[in-house]
Design a protein that fits this description.
By secondary structure, the protein is α/β, with parallel strands linked by helices. It contains eight helices and eleven strands.
């Protein structure tokens, strides 16, 4: 048996100051610090080594958790997945972060969520839902260990973070290929996760630029279901229900101002490819602001970290609970008909 953990609840973690900015008033969420108004620091983010140590520590503490290596990056780093599987017949959800290495606050939130799953706050939930978490698919990009220059990136700290993997390939454009032709990270995801587990739902967590807005207010994030015509109607409907859970959770608690993302229909994009190939109901979630970029308006200063991390935790917790208690089946999808599609101040920026 694994050693039992002495852990804090999610609310306790927040109250103890795990994140400096989580007390942001609801009205300020979407209009938080802008690009260029705060230090963009990478030294405060988990390194790959720190992430692995954190996961191994949680694996020891949590009886319900199993840590699996699903493959290796181009540079040979193990790709980690945290698993909570109590019953193979339970519905299963996958949370995927950092296909793009410079989009890390979702990873920071996913790590805190993993810790949260080891607390009494989730007692009974794990009996009715299986959870898979890949908190850093693109570890080489996250560490700036790539075979091209990052000298024009803006962040300060111990490293730069880049969208691409070490071969300068966008992993979120790999999903329509034969797996044998994919980059190692995408191939591991397909062959050792999508094809090995009966996954019902997936939230693919990303970051976008800082200037997207609806109704004249900057969004804290945006969502989108699969948009490829080959996705089965029932898969699409479940995807829309997944989006409903996320939208209503964040809007009702004031942790987000959410818009509809204007994304492509290509089968090579993760939310579309997983839905087409494996009938997984998927949701794209694009958080505001990246952790590093060569375009200044894409990255947010660290003062925004708290509410964006909190937004991630709220998203993951709400979806798990709704699947576990079955309430997702009754989720109202009509909001999609009126959810405003975001626009960008000054144009450009959208690129999931």
């Amino acid at each position: 048996m694994k050693k039992k953990a002495i852990t804090f609840s999610l609310s306790g973690m927040m109250a103890l100051g795990a994140f400096a900015a989580v007390g942001t008033p609801a009205g300020a969420v979407g209009n938080g610090p802008n690009a260029g108004t705060g230090s963009i620091q990478t030294s405060i983010l988990y390194t790959y080594e720190g992430l692995v140590n954190y996961l191994k520590d949680q694996d020891v503490k949590q009886d319900a958790m199993t840590l699996e290596v699903i493959g290796k990056t181009v540079k040979g780093r193990d790709i980690q997945m945290a698993k909570y599987i109590s019953n193979p017949n339970n519905p299963t959800i996958l949370f995927l972060t950092q296909q793009h290495g410079n989009e890390q606050l979702t990873t920071e939130g996913a790590l805190q969520f993993i810790k949260h799953l080891g607390t009494n706050k989730t007692k009974g939930v794990l009996d009715n839902v299986n959870i898979l978490v890949i908190p850093m698919l693109n570890a080489d990009g996250a560490m700036g260990d790539v075979d091209f220059s990052l000298d024009d990136y803006h962040a300060d700290g111990d490293r730069h973070l880049t969208r691409y993997n070490s071969n300068k390939v966008d992993l979120n454009r790999e999903h329509a290929k034969a797996t044998s032709d994919m980059e190692p990270e995408a191939r591991a995801l397909h062959e050792n996760v999508f094809q090995e587990y009966q996954i019902d739902y997936m939230i693919d967590l990303h970051h976008q630029g800082t200037l997207s807005e609806t109704d004249g207010k900057l969004v804290s994030g945006s969502i989108l279901h699969p948009t490829n015509a080959s996705v089965k109607p029932e898969v699409l409907e479940k995807s829309k229900k997944l989006g409903s859970v996320v939208y209503h959770e964040l809007e009702s608690k004031g942790w987000g101002h959410i818009g509809k993302y204007e994304g492509g229909s290509g089968a090579n994009i993760g939310r579309n490819g997983a839905a087409i190939r494996y009938d997984i109901s998927t949701l794209l979630f694009e958080m505001r602001g990246m952790s590093d970029h060569y375009i200044e308006s894409y990255a947010l200063g660290q003062k925004s970290n708290g509410y964006l991390i909190k937004q991630t935790i709220e998203t993951l917790d709400a979806t798990v609970r709704s699947i576990a208690d079955g309430s997702i089946e009754k989720a109202d999808t009509s909001f999609w008909d009126t959810l405003p599609t975001q626009t960008t101040r000054g144009g450009g920026e959208a690129d999931e």
